[in-house]
Amino acid sequence: MQKFTTLTGTAAPLPIINIDTDMIIPKDYLKTIKRTGLGKGLFAEMRFKDDGSPNPDFVLNKPAYSKATILVAGDNFGCGSSREHAPWALLDFGIRCVISTSFADIFYNNCFNNGILPVVVSAEDLEKLLDDASRGANATLTVDLEAQEIRGPDGGVVRFDIDPARKHKLLNGLDDIGMTMERGTSIGGFEAKVAAERPWI
Fold this sequence. Notes:
The protein is of the alpha/beta class. It contains eight helices and seven strands, in the order βααβαβαβαβββααα.
């Protein structure tokens, strides 16, 4: 899994509450179990018109945000079904960080397992970050995971909390298997001890 240390990039504002996983990646795109290629379906029902042409009013279709790597979104992001295709689609599009006041639990956990940093901030801080993100070509934020802070284009800083184990996971590019393998020596020692004490097992 790709490490997440410090990310500086364009932040796209998406001030919509209750963005569910079907909005993130519609069910029509769930026919694959591959993690790549889903970026084309990200927010498809909002990004594209009925005839398949791009919707010029959707934020990610605007030239200033077409290469966004950070999403600043409304409350309860990632609610709905538990589809892991949602973080896959975000990552395939290039989104490495989503900032909101709250996330659905399963989506939140899935982000950490796929190298995306979900950042929870206060409503007041979200308003500041949405204002930063509304600046088009100047909507650049820096997300520093080690320092646990978001730096805005005018020098403003927003601090955020994160579980230490999840922070370690992202900083080192570890999925759940990688986290287990870090304890390989201890696990091996335990298995050897059990084998010696209980050879019948």
